[in-house]
């Protein structure tokens, strides 16, 4: 009986860890979708970017995702960085996506 109890507790611990990892993976995937959407919107609507952070939020999968983007210009290429956070005041982003655009001179 004791062996079954120990095995049962071990299986519960493994299942709990797997659920945490699945939730983390789900958050990373949703954050990547938000970053992709923001980067596409910036490129399609030609939103003016600066070196200061432009901030916004999106509602995806019953959760509000907070994003910020900025552009650094190096020669004739603008490098756009999009950071996605799961909480408004979070220091560490869930996902970072970088894209580029050619600047006409």
Characterise this structure.
- The chain is an alpha+beta fold and 105 residues long.
- The protein has 1 helix and 4 strands; from the N terminus they run H-E-E-E-E.
- The chain has a single domain, classed as Pantoate--beta-alanine Ligase, Chain: A,domain 2.
- Strands 1-2-3-4 form a 4-stranded antiparallel β-sheet, with helices on one face.
- It is elongated and about 75 Å long.
Secondary structure blueprint with pairings:
Elements: H1 2-45, E1 54-60, E2 63-74, E3 77-85, E4 95-102
Task: Describe the structure using short key phrases.
105 residues, alpha+beta, Pantoate--beta-alanine Ligase, Chain: A,domain 2, 4-stranded antiparallel sheet, 1 helix, 42% helix
CATH architecture: 2-Layer Sandwich
Averaged pLDDT: 90
Low-confidence stretches: none
CATH topology: Pantoate--beta-alanine Ligase, Chain: A,domain 2
Largest β sheet strand count, sense and barrel closure:
4 strands, antiparallel
Number of strands: 4
What's the number of helices?
A: 1
Bulk shape = elongated
Coarse structural class = alpha+beta
**Gyration radius over CA:** 20 Å
Strand order of the largest sheet: 1-2-3-4
Helix content: 40-55%
| CATH-defined superfamily | GSPII I/J protein-like
Number of domains: 1
Q: Name the beta content range.
A: 25-35%
């Amino acid at each position: 009986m004791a062996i079954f109890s120990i095995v049962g507790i071990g299986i519960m611990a493994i299942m709990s860890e797997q659920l945490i990892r699945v939730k983390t993976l789900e958050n990373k995937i949703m954050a990547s979708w938000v970053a992709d959407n923001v980067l596409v919107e910036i490129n399609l609507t030609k939103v003016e970017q600066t070196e200061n952070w432009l901030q916004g939020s999106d509602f995806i999968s019953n959760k509000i995702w907070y994003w910020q983007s900025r552009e650094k210009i190096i020669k004739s290429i603008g490098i756009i960085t999009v950071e996605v956070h799961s909480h408004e005041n979070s220091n560490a982003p869930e996902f970072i996506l970088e894209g580029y655009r050619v600047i006409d001179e």
